[in-house]
Structure formats: structure tokens, C-alpha cells
Amino acid sequence: GDFEKGLATATPFNPAPPVGENCTLSQGYWSSHSEFGPASYNDTWAMMLADGANTPFFHSGQSYYEVINAPVRNNAYYILAQQYIAAELNFLQGADLSDAQVAFDAATALFIAYAPDELAGLKKADPLRSQFVDLAYTLEQYNTGMIGPGYCTDSEEE
Description:
mainly alpha
């Protein structure tokens, strides 16, 4: 519903700690700050398994970079995967994942079990699709600072 429409535009309103103080960054930030740009490189991407943004994302047949930048096209796999990747990068950068750990672990299990094409045709009311979208909502709340350690300030200018 409304969450999905607002995914790309959600902006936190809570005061946030400065960059580097255990804070989070949004999926929009991470999608543009890999080694492929277009914004300045955040080397947290280099901590991602073996191959940075080129690391394969579960059974998607795509890299982390391709998944976080994929057109969502109402596919709940990508709705969740993009928030999941941002949460993983936030965790690698030092942000406390405690408030989102249950959702992150549940999402991991779904990515082990499903590929994007298995979610592509599901209707809005489908229980599996709803599970993906609900987890995405929680992870998006974490990434934008509504839950968890809070959103990094001054991150978009760098």
C-alpha cells in the first residue's frame, strides 16, 4: 500500500548522530555510493563478502549492485532485497542491527528459499508477497532511522 509508494521518498525526521557514530544510511544512499558511483565511493561496499558490489546476491542471478539498483516493478523480491542490502551495509559500517535483526534473519531465510521470478507475478494480497513487503518495511524503518541507532546526518552531501 502506501509504504510501497513511499519507499524511495521516505525521509527521517528524527535527530540523528553524526556520520560514523553507529548510524544508518538509506537504500537510496547505498545504491549510488558503490564503486560504480555515480556518487563518491563508500568503501563499506568492499567489506561485502569477496567481491564488493559485484558479489552475487543469493539466487537472483544478479550482483548486489544490480539488485539494489533494479527496477522494482512491483516485485516484492526487489522491494525487500533493496532494503536488505542497505541494512547489511549499515551493519558492516558499524550500525547496531539489534532492532532489525529478527527481520533481517527472516529475510535471509526467504532469499535462501526464493528467486525474483518466484515473486514476480504475485498479487498484493498474496501471503508470501505480504511477508516480503512487511520485512522490507521493518528494514526500511531501520535504514532511515525510525528504529535502531538513527540516521546519519550530512551523508547526502558527501
